[in-house]
């Protein structure tokens, strides 16, 4: 299957939804060529709004649009949307339960050469802590398309984390997608590797490497961080007794924290959280950064061997 980026899949899906939902509008902050909302702008220029570098104003306008019955998708880089407009997201979007969709791109280390100033490693934590917000982190283009459609059709605030690089496709059109329901991509009994976003492919590679060592590893695509699939976590905690979480995000407040909050209530499972430690990012090619920060299949295997 043709490789593509998650942001391209997002832009293509917006066009499809635009034809089906006449009340869908798209807002951007001078980054339409990077977020790929330029596709929607070309198809539906009357429903596209560019706010320039005024992210807080953009979010507030989206709330007003939502309260009139429109379904606004807000896009910019995660560092600007989740960071610069946080107060507006908290008080105007989530507090009022506005039907605003935040699809923010260029999060995580995969932003690459843009460096630590633009590599948002705290967005999942920021969005997850807000009442009424759902948080979705898709792993490939197909899942991104499904997630975009799912949040468009679901009433209420939503955060969709959209990655920059061109990536392999891991799921199929037949792979189920339901907000709050994890997908078990590989079953296993010795350890459950729970991953989200671009780390799902690394988790699958790690499972293959562990298989060569006689270890039966399950791989779980936890595409929804909030609401988390507690039932799936509890099942594999009991079944495997060992859980490793992997995310392209800080180890504080993201996927690992969400899983640990479930595990601690039940007990009985050892856990290891793989992510970016208490550090900022740095400039470099994405794969080199993943190696530098320990976000690789080899590191997952090493973590298992320490458990």
Overall description:
The protein is α/β, with parallel strands linked by helices and 307 residues long. It has 13 helices and 14 strands. The chain has a seven-stranded mixed sheet with strand order 3-2-4-5-7-6-12, sandwiched between helices. α10 (230-240) packs across α11. The two termini are 37 Å apart.
What labels would you give this structure?
307 residues, 7-stranded mixed sheet, alpha/beta, 13 helices, single chain, 14 strands, 5-stranded mixed sheet, globular
What is the element layout, followed by pairings?
Blueprint: E1 4-5, H1 6-20, E2 24-28, H2 32-35, H3 38-43, E3 48-50, H4 55-67, E4 71-75, H5 78-84, H6 86-94, E5 101-105, H7 123-128, E6 134-136, H8 141-153, E7 158-162, E8 166-167, E9 183-186, E10 191-195, H9 199-211, E11 217-221, E12 224-226, H10 230-240, E13 242-250, H11 255-266, E14 270-276, H12 286-292, H13 297-306
Parallel strand pairs: 2-3, 2-4, 4-5, 5-7, 6-7, 10-11, 10-13, 13-14
Antiparallel strand pairs: 1-8, 6-12, 9-11
Helix pairs in contact: 1-8, 4-6, 9-13, 10-11
């Amino acid at each position: 299957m043709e490789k593509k980026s998650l942001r391209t899949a997002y832009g293509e899906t917006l066009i499809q939804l635009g034809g089906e939902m006449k009340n869908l509008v798209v807002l951007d902050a001078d980054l339409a060529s990077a977020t790929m909302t330029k596709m929607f702008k070309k198809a539906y220029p009357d429903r596209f709004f560019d706010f320039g570098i005024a992210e807080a104003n953009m979010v507030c306008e989206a709330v007003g649009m939502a309260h009139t019955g429109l379904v606004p998708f807000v896009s910019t880089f995660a560092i600007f949307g989740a960071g610069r407009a946080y107060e507006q997201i908290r008080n105007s979007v989530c507090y009022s339960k506005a039907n605003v969709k935040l699809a923010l791109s260029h999060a995580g280390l995969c932003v690459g050469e843009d460096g630590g100033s633009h590599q948002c490693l705290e967005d999942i934590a920021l969005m997850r802590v807000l009442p009424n917000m759902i948080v979705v982190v898709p792993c490939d283009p197909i899942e991104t398309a499904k997630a975009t459609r799912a949040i468009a059709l679901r009433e209420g605030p939503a955060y969709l984390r959209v990655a920059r690089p061109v990536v392999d496709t891991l799921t199929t059109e037949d792979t189920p997608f339901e907000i709050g329901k994890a997908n078990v991509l590989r079953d296993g009994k010795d350890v459950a590797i729970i991953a989200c976003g671009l780390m799902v492919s690394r988790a699958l590679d790690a499972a293959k490497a562990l298989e060569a060592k006689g270890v039966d590893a399950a791989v779980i695509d936890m595409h929804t961080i909030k609401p988390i699939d507690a039932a799936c976590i509890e099942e594999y905690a009991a079944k495997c007794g060992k859980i490793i979480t992997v995310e392209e995000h800080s180890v504080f407040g993201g996927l690992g924290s969400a899983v640990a909050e479930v595990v601690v209530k039940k007990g009985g499972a050892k856990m290891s959280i793989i992510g970016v430690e208490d550090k900022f990012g740095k400039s470099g090619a994405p794969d080199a950064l993943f190696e530098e920060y320990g976000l690789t299949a080899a590191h997952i295997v090493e973590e298992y061997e320490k458990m």
